[in-house]
Amino acid sequence: MNLFATICILGIHLILLLVCLPAQAISPQLEWPCQRTVVSRSALNMPPYSYMNQQNQLTGYRVEFMQQLFGRLGCKLEILTDSPWKRSLMLLESGEIDVLMNASKSTERERYAWFSTAYEDEKVAVFVAATQRDHLQLKQLEDIGAKGYSVGIIRGNYYGPQFAALLEQPKFKKHVIEAIDKPSLYQFVLRGRVQMYLDYFPNGLLALRDEELDQQIVRYPMTPITIGQVHFMLSRQSVGASFVRQLDLVLAEMLRDGSVRKLQQKYGIAPG
Predict the structure, then answer these.
(1) Which CATH superfamily is domain 27-119+230-266 in?
(2) Residue 97 CB-half CA count within 13 A
(3) Before 224, cis peptide (omega within 30)?
(4) Which phi-psi region, left, alpha or beta, contains residue 165 (left: φ > 0; alpha: ψ -120 to 50)?
(5) From 8, 12, 251, 271, which residue has the greatest number of CB atoms within 10 Å?
């Protein structure tokens, strides 16, 4: 076989290898300085965190937060809006999206994701139909199973270590019903399929107000439970360690110079 033929065969093998490799394997991993668009995800209907304004533009506290953060990093940002949270976690695990905001850290997630420095506390509250508020006797999450109450949650959401431990108990888990989104939870509690549901606080109150359901569904008078802190969650498949370190530096700067506080005040979610 002559040299020309050998080169042609090797070239064909190389082309076939590149075609057969998954896209992620030949895409550059995001490093510092930012050399490609950062891909994230946000909801369309969660004001004041993420929503479409009158100009049909995606805006809100989390949207502006990401725009400022990645703008300071010198990155272009693309925000997808067409996948529920659980699907977004799968996309981040595979590297099809790079970052998610407002994520809780867990051992399982650390297997496939980096986590930034924490930037906010995260709390969970119990919500009930207004007509049922005075008929329930609830002092702690354990009472849900002990009293035979049914509780709704959103599939894929994390509600803290205490609730996660309760879910490991078959007697408790049988009282838990999963929904795919908030509107489903609202219908569950209004139609009596569940007696209560869990939601993040104060997010859950704001969402009810936006949907004009705050007279029909109310927060149960049990102190909201601090379940941890939230972080930016970044894919180990598509993001390098040096980028995470630089993001932490910029995030610390935003917390220090008051930028985060100003955004919280702008959207009415500043902690007391």
Answers:
(1) Periplasmic binding protein-like II (3.40.190.10)
(2) 24
(3) no
(4) alpha
(5) 251
CA distance 214 to 211: 8
For 121-227, CATH number out of 3.40.50.2000, 3.40.190.10, 3.40.50.1980, 3.40.50.300 equals 3.40.190.10
Q: Compute the residue count for the chain.
A: 272
From first to last of the 272 residues of the chain, give the pLDDT tens digit.
554 454 444 444 444 443 343 434 445 789 988 989 999 999 887 788 898 999 999 999 999 999 999 999 999 999 999 788 889 999 999 999 999 999 988 899 999 999 999 999 999 999 999 999 999 999 999 999 999 999 999 998 889 889 999 999 999 999 999 999 999 999 999 999 999 999 998 888 888 988 899 999 999 999 999 998 999 999 999 999 999 999 999 999 999 999 999 999 999 887 65
Residue 201 forms beta bridges with which residues? 123
- Number of neighbouring beta carbons within 10 Å of residue 103: 22
Tell me if the pTM is above 0.85.
no
Place of tokens 């490093």: 31
